[in-house]
Amino acid sequence: MNKYDAIIIGGGHNGLVAAAYLAKAGKKVIVLERRHILGGAAATEEIYPGFKFTVFSYVVSLLRPEIVRDLNLPKHGLTILPLESTITPLPDGDYLYRDIDHHRTLRNIARFSERDAEAYEEYSRSMYFMAKAVKYILGIIPPDPTSLKPKDLLGLLEMSKHFLGIGEEQFFTLFKLMTMSSADFLEEWFETDPLIATMSASGIIGTFLGPRSPGTAYVLLHHYMGEIDGVFRAWGFAKGGTGAISNSIAGAAREFGAEIRTNAPVSNVIVKNGKATGVALENGDEFLADIIISSLDPKLTFLKLVEENDLPSDLVESIHKFKIRGSSGKVNLALDALPDLSCIPGPGPHLRGAISISPSVDYIERAYDDAKYGEISKQPYIDVIIPSMIDPDMAPPGKHVMSCFVQYAPYELREGTWEQRREELGDNVVNALSEFMPNIKDIILHRQVLSPWDVEQSIGLSQGNIFQGELSLFQLFFLRPASGYAKYNTPIRGYYQCGSGTHPGGGITGTPGRLAALKILKEIN
Fold first, then answer.
1. What are the tens digits of pLDDT across the range 351-361?
2. What integer pLDDT is reported at residue 230 of this predicted model?
3. In terms of residue numbers, what domain contains 319?
4. CATH of the domain at 503
5. Distance of alpha carbon 348 from alpha carbon 465, whole angstroms
C-alpha cells in the first residue's frame, strides 16, 4: 500500500492549489476526486455535441495573482480573456451600459442622472481603496481574538494597525460595508434605480439574501476585490471555460510531482487515537498519509468524512448551525444563432460582456421574496454571458453558448421536489430573457437546467451552495467555518481543511488552498 506525505480530498480548484504548493515543496501528494473530471464547480464539459459549457461557475476575477505567479499557470494553458462591459436592458426599451471606456460609461450614466455620473468616479475610487485595504485580509490566516497566544495577539495588533491606518473616512466606509445592505449602501451614492440594482446584485451572488438584506454590502466588496493583471474590479473569462483554470492548476501540480486520480470518491477519513492516518474510498481501497486535507465544504468535512465522536461537541453543534443554504441556479443554453437584444439589435461588443437582467432593486427583491417562502423566483435575477462571443472555440461556427446564473432557486421548495420542478426554473429564466431578447425561444437547440439540488448531486456541494457557506459577517474571518477552527485546522491531528468554507470564502480564488498548504508546510518542516 502506497504511503503519501499528504492526501487531498476533492479535485476542486482549492484542493488542486494545495496539492501544487505541497508538491512544489517536495512532498509526495495525491489528489482524490470523485468525478470523472477535475475542477468541482470550476469545470468545463461538452453537454451537447460541439458545445462546451462552463457548467457551474462561469467567470473569473478573484483568482489570486500570487497563485498565478507561483504556479506559473500561463505555462500550463491559463489565458484570461477580459469581460469588458455590462449591459442592463430595461422594460421600456432603454438600457444602461458600462464598459472599459470610462468616458462612454459616464455619458451613459449621465443620460439617467448627471449627479450619478459625477458620483460614479468618486464611488469607484472609494471602492478601489476599500478593496486594497481588505486585500490584506485575503493573504493572512485570521488571528483568533479569543486566544491569548502571542502569535494571535500579534496578528490582532498588526491587523488593527492596518485598518486604523487606512484613515477615518475609509474606516467608516468599511464599517458600512460590513453591516449595511448592498442596495442601502449604493443608495447613499446613486439615485438611478437600474444602476443601483445592477451593482447591488453583486451583493446577493450565492447568498440566501436580498439586495436590502444587511450584510450584502460586504459580499459586494468581496466581488469588488477581483483583479486581473493588477486591475481591481476586472472580470474575465478563462479561455476554454473555468475548467481551464482547474486544468492549469492540475498541470502545475503534476509537473511538481503530484498524483491526481479521478473516479476516486472518498468514503471516510481513517482516524486512529485522535490522528488522521489515511482515507478509504467507496470501493474499499485505502491510502495512507501523515496529512489529510479536505477541500470539501464544512458539512462534509466534519459531519460525513469523520465520526462525530472524534470531534468536540461544540464544534459539531457549530457545523450543524453553519449556514450553507443553496439559492442559485444555472441555465446553460446551446443556441443556433446570437440572441437579439431589443434595446440594441444585432451583433456588437455589448454581447461580449455581461447582460444583467436587473432592471430595478424591487425586481430583485421580489425575486428574493419568492425564494423566502420556498418558491422558484417567477422573474429571477439573471447574470448572462455568451462565452462563445469571447472564446469562439466554445461552440461550432455560427452557433453560441449562453451561460445564465440565476437567483433565486431555493434548495428547499415549499411544494414538490426539484426533480419534479426543475424545468419550471428553466421556463422562468427563458421567459424573463424573452422580454429583452425576443428571438431567444426560437434559437434554443438545447437547455440544461441546474437547481441547487442538481449541483449537490453532481459535484457534492452541500445544498448546492457555490461558496460552501454564506458570506455573512458571522461566518467570516475567525468564524469561518467555526470559532477556533478558522486556521485550516481541525481537532483531529493531521486533518486539515482547505475549501471555500474556510477563510476568505468563496469564488475562484485559490486562497484557501494556498494558505492551508503554507500553514501545513510551516508546521511539518
1. 999 999 999 99
2. 46
3. 3-79+240-323+468-524
4. 3.50.50.60
5. 34
